Amino acid sequence: MAETKEETIQLKNELNQIREELDEHLIGINENTTEIETQYEYLSEIDAKIEKLSEKIDDIYLFLGVNKEHYELKRELTLREKEIFKILYQEEVENVDFRFIARTLILPVSLVKRSIDNMIAKGVPINKKFLKSGVYLSLDRYFKRLQAKFNLVGIENSPKKIIQLSLFDYR
What we know:
By secondary structure, this protein is mainly α. It has helices at residues 2-64, 79-90, 98-105, 109-121, 141-150, and strands spanning 96-97, 126-131, 134-139.
């Protein structure tokens, strides 16, 4: 019985020692987590500052004048491509995906994807951001500013709607 009491005390001591070690590890993990969060906030601030600097540099380029010919399109956009361009141009958020454009213009997603690829081939700088939730599209910010200043794409101000024809319209 004395041996079991001593073994129980020894076991409690060992468990307390393990608990203390685990508590030390937990404290270390919490400190590291806090440090990681601090570093993330710091990197986010730096990223925001870099973004602001990039915008200021873009403004300087616009102020100094830009070689407009450098951004001329290889071919003119079709009416449908111009409608897609308008959506990308007017959207302030970068969460524009193929489905959003397809729903807005009442077009199949496959047609929107082909049109986007054609626009890129014609020289429209469209950024594609690949995330787990899908592919998100946006116009290059610098090109967007040039479009506002020089109307490189040739978008008219009067709103036009693409008329979608189906096979049934030809009967």
